[in-house]
Amino acid sequence: MKTRDSEARIDDLKVSAFKIPTESPEADGTYEWDSTTIVIVEVTGGGKHGLGYTYADTATAQLIEDKLKDVVIGRDALSVNGAWMSMWHSVRNFGRPGICSMAISAVDTALWDLKARLLELPLVTLFGQVRDTLPIYGSGGFTNYSNEQLQKQLRGWVEQGIPRVKMKIGRDARIDRQRVASARHAIGEDVDLFVDWFEEPVSADDLEGLRLIRDRAPAGMDIAAGEYGYDSDYFRRMFDAGAVDVLQADATRCCGFTGFLQAATLCDAHHIPLSSHCAPALHVHIGCASPALRHAEYFHDHVRIERMIFDGVVEPIDGALSPDQSQPGLGLTLKRADAQKFAI
C-alpha cells in the first residue's frame, strides 16, 4: 500500500482479557451468569495510544492476536476505514458474525480512539457532535432478584435523576406480572418502565416473528431489537421486514464504531430511532454524534466493570451522559493494577 512519508503508522497492538465476577449471580429470561469477560485492545502509533474493547469470550482475544493484529500493524493510523475493511475481508473464511465481528469491534474502537488522540480531538468532535448529552436508562432488574433487590435498584436510578429504567422478565408469566407491579410501585407513575422480554421477544433472527409481535403489541409500546446484529446487512433486513420500532445496536458487537455509524445511517434513512446496547462508557461519544439515537442502555454490570478498570468514566447528570471534551479520544485510561487481578 502506498503511504505518505509523514503518516503515523500503527506500530503495535496488544490484547488482554479480564474475567470479572458479578456482585451476585444474574439472570434474564433465558440465561444465567456469574461473571463477565471484557477483551481490551491497545494500539500505538505516532507516539500515541488508543484503547478499545468488547464484552466477549477469550476466543475473541485469541482471534485478535492470531489474525487481526497482523492485518492492522503497519497501516496508516488515520485511515481507520481502510483498516476496518481489511479486517472485514480477512475473516471471510472464519464466519463473520459473532466472535469475528466482536474482535473487529474491539480493534476498530481502539483505532478510532488512537486517531482522535493523534488529532488531539475528543472522539465526539471527530465524529461530528449533534447533541451535548446522551439520555440513558438504568438497566438491570435481573429475574433472580428478590422484590426488595429489584425495587432498591430501580428506585436508586430514579433517585439519581434517571427517568427511565428497565427490568428483565420471562421466567414465569404469573410471577412477572407481580414483579412488574412491584417495580412500578417503586418508581412511581412518571418514570418510563421498560421490560427486557419485549426487547428480544422472539429469536433475534426471527424477523417475521418480530414483525408479528410489533403488529400486535399494545398501542404506545415500542418493540426494540438488534443487539445481536453483527453487520449492516442484518440491520437492513430487519428494517425491510418492518421488525422493530427502535433499533438497538452495540458497538462492541457490530464491528465497532465503523459498524455502529453504518447502523445509525440506516436508521436515519428509514426514520427509525436508535438505542445503544450496554457498554455505556464506549457509546457516549458515538451516541452524541448519531442523530437517530434516542437513548443508551446504562447496564448495571457494565457500569460497575467500567468504573472498576477505567479512569475517565463519566457519571450521569440529570439522566444523561456527557462526553468529556477536555480529553482526546474516548478519554478512558486502563487502571492496570486494578484490572490485573482479573487477568485471564
Describe the fold and architecture.
The protein has 344 residues and is α/β, with parallel strands linked by helices. The chain folds into 2 domains: 10-120, Enolase-like, N-terminal domain (Enolase-like, domain 1, 2-Layer Sandwich), CATH 3.30.390; 125-335, TIM Barrel (Alpha-Beta Barrel). The chain is built from 12 helices and 13 strands. The protein has helices at residues 58-72, 80-90, 96-118, 123-127, 147-159, 173-187, 207-216, 232-240, 256-270, 280-287, 300-309, 336-340; strands at 10-27, 32-45, 48-55, 134-139, 164-167, 192-195, 224-225, 246-249, 274-276, 293-299, 310-311, 320-321, 333-334. A hairpin with a 4-residue loop joins strand 1 (10-27) and strand 2 (32-45). The protein starts with 9 loop residues before the first strand and ends with a helix. Mean pLDDT is 94; it is low at 1-5.
Overall number of strands: 13
User: How much of the residues is beta strand, in percent?
Assistant: 15-25%
The N- and C-terminal alpha carbons lie at a distance of: 36 Å
Helix content: 40-55%
What is the tally of helical segments?
12
Q: H/E element string?
A: EEEHHHHEHEHEHEHEHEHEHEEEH
**What is the 3D shape?**
globular
Number of structural units classed as domains = 2
CATH superfamily name of the largest domain? Enolase-like C-terminal domain
Keywords:
single chain, 344 residues, alpha/beta, Enolase-like, domain 1, TIM Barrel, 2 domains, eight-stranded mixed β-sheet, three-stranded antiparallel β-sheet, 12 helices, 40% helix, disordered N terminus
Topology of this protein?
Blueprint (H helix, E strand, L loop, with lengths): L9 E18 L4 E14 L2 E8 L2 H15 L7 H11 L5 H23 L4 H5 L6 E6 L7 H13 L4 E4 L5 H15 L4 E4 L11 H10 L7 E2 L6 H9 L5 E4 L6 H15 L3 E3 L3 H8 L5 E7 H10 E2 L8 E2 L11 E2 L1 H5 L4
Parallel strand pairs: 4-5, 4-10, 5-6, 7-8, 8-9, 9-10
Antiparallel strand pairs: 1-2, 2-3, 4-12, 11-13
